[in-house]
Write a structure and sequence with these properties.
The protein is α+β, with helices and mostly antiparallel strands.
Length: 339
């Protein structure tokens, strides 16, 4: 059992010294909904930001400001979904020294625009679908438009270990994520975490946060260097890659290795850990896609034409493989739909 954690918004701004972090994930939901409209921005400015000093709001913003943040906080990592009107602010070295926070946020913009300025005239702009990185120890200024975003907060020591001791600033980390071959996997994982975080018990939430963290490290380092536990994340990345390229007749283990930048041994180990074979998984995912299409798509298209869209060109063996997996042939599914 983790230690009890008693922070609530009515207790004022959270601080590491006063409240610490819970030993198991705790769900947090903060909103301006029940706050008097004229006080909403100041409430958000005071309560919602722990490693960021929001700028004072002008009167027009104060009169209409609305925001909500919900997520999980834990001594292993944090994860939040936010939906907020425009907000801006800054972080300086004195704040970092004063509050002692030493974490890095890796997030995904769902709606709106994020602009960040770092020392040395470095500017980072993130639009919907883009990643963003925020380092609480690095001085910066940030300006958000009205937006939605999800972000994972990892501890610096863990990230440094995953990067084999390297220290990268926010701009370098953000650039690395944007060119990672696993960026699609990470986007899916962040969205998945947001969708399921409130539905699970503490054990499930812990697993969800660990998967999000491992996906982040894997995207930043590559499969060969991500350390223990990377196999399951690499397996999911491979599944994601296969699902997006099922129509490619040349889809193979070698192509997946090149795309994910891992060796054949690493990929086969990831599939073996998950109890699956690569060729069999590709075939089964193609058959699964074909079945969904036949059950929901047009009924007058020849089965062979539909199958080609999933990379299934061996029409002589298609019905046999399909029946072995589902106990029914493709033609029987089409006939059932027509009836």
């Amino acid at each position: 059992m983790g230690k009890e954690w008693n922070w609530r918004p009515e207790l004022g701004r959270w601080s590491l010294d006063e409240f610490g972090l819970p030993g198991r994930p705790a769900f947090v939901d903060i909103s301006t909904t029940l706050v008097e409209r004229s006080q909403a921005y100041e409430f958000w400015r005071e309560i919602a930001f722990t490693d960021f000093e929001a700028d004072p709001g002008h009167k027009a913003a104060r009169d209409v400001f609305r925001a909500r943040a919900k997520g999980l906080t834990w001594d292993g990592a944090d994860f939040f979904y936010t939906n907020s009107d425009a907000v801006s602010g800054y972080r300086d070295r004195r704040q970092a020294e004063r509050d002692g926070l030493d974490s890095i946020s890796v997030g995904l913009v769902l709606r709106g625009t994020r602009k960040a300025a770092l020392p040395g005239d470095t500017e980072m702009i993130s639009e919907p679908g883009d990643f963003f990185v925020y380092d609480g120890r690095q001085p910066s200024s940030v300006a958000w438009s009205s937006h939605e975003a999800v972000f994972l907060v990892v501890r610096r020591a863990e990230l440094r270990s995953a990067l084999n001791g390297r220290e990268l600033d926010a701009a370098e980390l953000q650039a690395q994520l944007s060119r990672s071959p696993l960026q699609h996997m990470l986007r899916d994982q962040l969205r998945l975490t947001a969708r399921h975080m409130q539905k699970l018990d503490a054990a499930g939430q812990t697993l969800l946060l660990q998967q999000a963290k491992q996906s982040t490290f894997l995207a930043l380092t590559g499969p060969e260097d991500a350390g223990p536990g990377a196999e399951s994340t690499l397996f999911q990345a491979a599944i994601n890659y296969i699902q997006h390229r099922m129509s490619d007749p040349n889809l193979s283990a070698d192509q997946i290795c090149r795309a994910l930048r891992c060796s054949r041994a690493t990929l086969y180990r990831a599939f073996a850990t998950s109890g699956a074979g690569i060729a069999e998984t590709i075939r089964d995912l193609r058959l699964d896609g074909l079945r969904r299409d036949l059950e929901m798509g047009e009924t007058d298209r020849p089965v062979a034409d539909v199958a080609v869209g999933y990379g299934l060109y061996d029409t002589a063996n298609l019905s046999r493989q399909f029946r072995r997996r589902f106990g029914i042939t493709p033609s029987e599914i089409q006939n059932r739909r027509r009836r």
